Structures are given as structure tokens and as C-alpha cells.
UniProtKB/TrEMBL annotation:
GTP binds at residues 88-95, 134-138, 188-191. One of the essential components for the initiation of protein synthesis. Protects formylmethionyl-tRNA from spontaneous hydrolysis and promotes its binding to the 30S ribosomal subunits. Also involved in the hydrolysis of GTP during the formation of the 70S ribosomal complex. Residues 79-248 form the Tr-type G domain. It comes from the Bacteria. This is Translation initiation factor IF-2. The lineage of its organism: Bacteria, Bacillati, Bacillota, Clostridia, Eubacteriales. It is found in: Cytoplasm. Transmembrane segments: none annotated. Belongs to the TRAFAC class translation factor GTPase superfamily. Classic translation factor GTPase family. IF-2 subfamily. Residues 82-230 are annotated as: G-domain. The chain holds residues 320 to 690 of 900 of the full protein.
Amino acid sequence: GETITVKSLAEKMRISAGEVIKKLMELGTLATINQEIDSDTATIVANEMGFEVQVKIELDKEAQLMMQEPEDDASNLKSRPPVVTIMGHVDHGKTSLLDAIRHANVTASEAGGITQHIGAYQVEHKGKKITFVDTPGHAAFTAMRARGAKVTDIAILVIAADDGVMPQTVEAINHARAAEVPIIVAVNKIDKPDADPEKVKRELTEYNLIPEEWGGDTIFVEVSAKERQNLTDLLEMILLVAEIGEYKANPSRTARGTVIEAELDKGRGPVATVLVQNGTLRVGDFIIAGVAYGKVRAMMDYTGRRVNKAGPSMPVEVLGFSAVPPAGELFYTVEDEKFGKQIIDERANKKREEELKLSAPKVSLDDLFNQ
Ligand code: GDP
Ligand code: MG
């Protein structure tokens, strides 16, 4: 907490330090003139002397940043596309499903830009956009949640119809429940001869995911990522769930969101795929994420096309970061560049302190005496 020396407390009250020391003694505290006393004790002394005290707390920049985060007025909120993640056991077809949806929903002119893997993309179905985010794995999902990053609105639980519920299926269910997001079950690989979607449904009842036809309220869609079967049904169901969720954000404010993935590109420097979750990100904005910062030099949508701005739920590639920000880190844009750099300095210092603490040898009294 805050402290003050006896001397400066006396000076502020325009009385002698001796009087303060005497008062402290009456209160049971022995103090010298240069001693630091805590704000609670200083307040009691000052009150006793007939002064009112206001303790000024120096907020660190991080806290100031949080305080600058505006509350969104309901009138500024506009509906935004749902953000969907695909989760499930390894090899059940998460990547295949993401790719199948993406390829089934791009126009020929866009197709050139989407050959390489990207962490997030959007599709349009019946004039409505849906954002898909490829979570880099369940561990990263947990880390994101620990940082307070809530990226996804809807979880698609992929289960291979020839394999059924597996350990990471259960993990995914738990993650989605902890994040309080609705689950849509995609029973995948129904093209396989040994596919048994009914068995998957039976197994899932144990986890309280009960299909509508059995009196429950969980949406099941049977798909084949390989044969691109029933993908439209899946999109329909996502839009249905999104309608209930009424996801909203305020496009007319400074942007914030989450870094989905980032890497150092030889030619372009640090490149980060970010998901804008609130506000609008613009070229020229000063952006911070972890201890990385920069001015947004250029932005590309998931097809590689340059864009000048990105609104809520839009994933974009951002160029201009000073360093590679870690995936899962929250990003903010700040209007005052100097303030932004102060936050980064403060974070970097804290990080160094933590590292020092970790590397300092721990010596106990026992160690000292038993050498
Ligand atoms: P992930 O680990 O969950 O991302 O799974 P992948 O998308 O990498 O798929 C694992 C394997 O299953 C790959 O060999 C895919 O080709 C195959 N696969 C994925 N979806 C289907 C499907 O619908 N039908 C069939 N027959 N194979 C599939
Ligand atoms: Mg995969």
C-alpha cells in the first residue's frame, strides 16, 4: 500500500515532526522522523490532529487502461457475426471440417487467396456472416480463458461417427461448458461404412447432450467433411443458435480483441491474425498486445485482400507489430501512443521482475547455517 514518512506527513500538516512522533507514540507506534508509515496509520494521526485525509493511489498504467475502456451504451450496440470454434478429439475431422466449410463457401475469385492455412475466416450464408476460429488446441483454449479472453460464441463439437466419444471429446464438452457457450454436435465421417451416428447420440446422453428427437435440446448435425455432406445444414444451425444469442458489439469505438496466431515473416516482419471483438480496427491505429506494440501498417482479410478497417467479429492479419505477440493475448488500441508505450514498458518491467524472481536462488535460514 501507500506510505509516507513522518517528516513529510508533518510538513503537509504544517506541524513539527516531534508532534507527529508524539501522537504516534500515544497510538502505540514508535517511529523516527524518516520512518515510513502506512496510509492507515497516517490517516489516524492526521484525523486526530483535525485534518481530513485523501489517500491518492497511483494507478499503474495497466489499471488506467482498464479504466479507459468505455462502457458500451446500448444504443451503440450493433449485431455482429457469431464466432464459432470447432473442438473435438484428435483425428475426428476438425481441420477437415474447417477446410470443407471454407472451400464450399468461397467464390472463385477468392479461392486463390485461401490455399494456405489461416487461423480464422468468415463465410457468408444467406446474407449472414459466420466467423470460424481454429483454436490452436485445448491447452491454448484454457490459457486464453485464464487471461479472460472469451473468443468463441458457439462451439461445434466434432465426433467421428466410427469412433464415438473419446477423452478429448469430454475435455471439449467441459471447456465449452466452462466458457458457457452453446454446443452444436457435428457427427462427422458419416460416409464411412462403419459409421454409427446413433451410437454417438447414445454415448452423449451421458454428458447431458440429448438430441431434440429424444426430447433434449441439443442440435445434432450429421456431416461428412470428406464428401462435403450436410455442411449447409450445419451453417443453418449455427445461424439459428446465433439468432438466439443476439451477439452484439459497438463498432464505433477503439478496437480490442484477441490475437489468434502470430509469426515472424521473413519479408513482412511480425504478422498477427487477430479477431476484433469490439470496436473497429483501422490502419494507422496504435495497437498493443502483451509486450508487443505498433502502428497498424496494413491489414488483410482472410483472402489476403487489403482492408482499411475491421469491425466486430472480423478476423484480420495485421502488419506493424514491433514483435510477435503471443497467441491468446488480448489486444487493445490506444489513442495516445505515449501512453501505449508506457503500458508496454510497465509490462516488460513486470515480466523482467517475474523472471528475476524465478531465477533468484532461494536460500532458507537452514541453508545459511548448515553450510
Ligand atoms: P483433426 O485432428 O480433428 O483436425 O482431424 P483431421 O481433419 O486432420 O482428420 C483426420 C483424418 O480423418 C484425416 O485423414 C481426414 O482425411 C479424415 N477425415 C476427416 N473427415 C472425414 C470424413 O468426413 N470422412 C472420412 N472418411 N474421413 C474424414
Ligand atoms: Mg487438426
